[in-house]
Amino acid sequence: MKDDAISRGQLLVCIYLTMTAEMLIRPYREPIQFPAQVLIPAAGMNLLVIGLALRLGRRAGTIGCAQRAQSGVGRLAMLFCTAVLALSGGAALQDADGFLGFTGGRQFSFFLFLALALLLVFYAVRLGAEGFARVGGVVLTLMLLSLGLVILSNLRDLRLQNLQILPQSHEKVVQALGIGFYASPALLAGVVLTEKTDRPAQMRWGKLLGGIFATYFVLTVVGEMTLGSFASVQRQPVYTLARIGGISVFRRLDSLHSSVWLMALLLGVVVQAAAAELLLRGALPAKWKKYTVLLTALLFGGAALFVHQETEAALWRWLTVGTAVGMLLLCAGRKGGEKRQ
Amino acid sequence: MKRFLALFAALLLLTGCQRPVSLSERAVVKMICISRQRQNYHVKLIAYTAPQSEENADAEREILLAEGEGDAVQTALLDAEHRLGAEAFYAQNELLLVEQEAAADRLGEILGYFSQERVSRPNTAVYAYQANEEECLLDPDTVQQTVKLLEEQKNSSGQDGGLVQMIYRFDLTGEVEDFFLLPRLVMGEGGVQTDALLFFRDRALQLALTGEEMEAAQLLLGELSRYRYLDGANSCTAEDLRLEYTVEDAPQPRLQLALRGEVRDLRSEADPRALCREIENHLAELLGQVILRCCVENRTDPFRFGWWFLAVDADRFAPLLAEGALFQENTVQVTVRLTPAS
Question: Domain-by-domain residue ranges, chain B?
Answer without folding.
Answer: 26-211, 225-340
